[in-house]
Design goal:
Length: about 180
């Protein structure tokens, strides 16, 4: 049975914080503010907290995210901080799947699910390499733009790993690489 934690969350229009029970099996999603922060660095969230914001995925439970955070060296209350600051929000369950997400064997067309997986993987690779290298990621992102399948992205993995390991700590680079492999699987 998952452990539960209590958290005070500002509820829009309520005027006062509301206590929310946060189960460790809970899932989280980036809010609009979180998505903007990843893409545009509006609030200058830095370092390992930014890495954890990038790693937030509605398919991962709070326990999985906390495990990654522990390996990287992020404080265990990072989810509560991100909820309080409006970067993420708790959601009810895992990622939803749709009937069209299953790719028929022998189908020559790309399913909506496959396209979504490719886009998520490509976006994640781009966000993390730009976060790590900044303007120095320009040549890598040009190569990334030519990718049209997850296999193409997989072919960039050695260069992706090399780029991350230049600037990120070993645990941080490993966490990002592991997530990228999950997206390519």
């Amino acid at each position: 049975m998952p452990v539960a934690q209590r958290l005070l969350v500002a509820v829009e229009g309520a005027g006062r914080p509301e206590e929310v029970l946060m189960a460790s099996g809970l899932h989280y999603a980036k809010t609009t503010k979180g998505i903007e922060e990843v893409g545009q660095r509006r609030n200058n969230l830095r370092g390992k907290m930014r890495t954890m914001l990038i790693l937030i995925d509605r398919a991962k439970t709070a326990d999985e995210l906390r495990s990654q955070a522990e390996r990287i060296g992020v404080p265990p209350d990072f989810l509560e901080v991100m909820v309080r600051e409006g970067y993420v929000t708790p959601i009810g369950g895992g990622a939803t799947s749709t009937p069209e997400a299953a790719n028929d064997a022998g189908s020559s067309t790309v399913s909506a699910g496959e396209l979504g997986q490719f886009r998520a993987a490509k976006s994640f690779m781009n966000e993390t390499v730009v976060n790590a290298l900044g303007i120095r990621a320009f040549m890598f992102t040009l190569r990334l733009e030519r990718c049209v399948t997850r296999a193409d992205l997989g072919a960039l993995m050695p260069d992706y790993q090399k780029a991350l390991r230049k600037v990120a700590s070993e645990p941080e680079a490993r966490a990002l690489e592991d997530r990228m492999r999950e997206l390519l699987a």
